[in-house]
Amino acid sequence: MRALLGQGGKDLAGSLAAREEGNAHFQAKRLREALACYTRAVLAAPCPGEELSLALVNRAAVLGRAAMHREVVEDLSLALEDGGYPSHLHYKAWQRLAVANEGLGRTVRAREAYTRLLDSLDHSDVPTGKLAKMREDAARARDTLEQQGRPPRDEGRPPRDEGRPYMAHGG
Asked: How many other C-beta atoms can be found within 10 angstroms of the C-beta atom of residue 70?
């Protein structure tokens, strides 16, 4: 994936337009179209940079709805490593990463992501009315995983699809 991101002509305006088109499709629940737009945005975005990170996190939202957890982890890891993702939006990436890791049976990583989600809410743009509920939900999910105390899943076995329903807060 990293090799693809560094290739070809980059078009910031084209990436932004594709991402905005993807947002419209996502809001209308046209997930296949949203995924295609976000993928175009990722491929057109300058690397590294904010636009690339925004496109990756949006694409991860669609992939999460399709329970494509490995791809979600890959996109979000790239977005967070890039350093271009705005800090006031980090909670979105950490929440999606927690759910994806949980869906893959990676409880330790899921707990870590829920903890990072809770930390990132201090710097978020979440409206005050929703903030308390988000904190409560994330803490409950993390604590539930902690209480279960299951050892991390053997990576050689296929994942179980018993993760939480995918919570999305905007795109």
From this structure: 12
Q: Are 26 and 2 in contact (CB under 8 A)?
A: no
E-assigned strand segments in the chain: none
CA gap 152, 129 in Å, rounded = 35
Give one word for 164, left, alpha or beta, with left for phi > 0 and alpha for psi -120 to 50: beta
Residue range 67-121, pLDDT digits in tens: 999 999 999 999 999 889 999 999 999 999 999 999 999 999 999 999 999 999 9
- Rounded to an integer, what distance in angstroms lies between the CA atom of residue 55 and that of residue 48? 12
3-state secondary structure of 165: coil
Let me know: does 60 contact 68? Beta carbons within 8 Å. no
pTM of the model: 0.80
Task: Give SS3 for 4.
Answer: helix
Q: What residue type is assigned to position 28 of the chain? A: A
Question: Which tokens hold the place of 105?
Answer: 């049976």
Cis peptide before 48 (omega within 30 of 0): yes
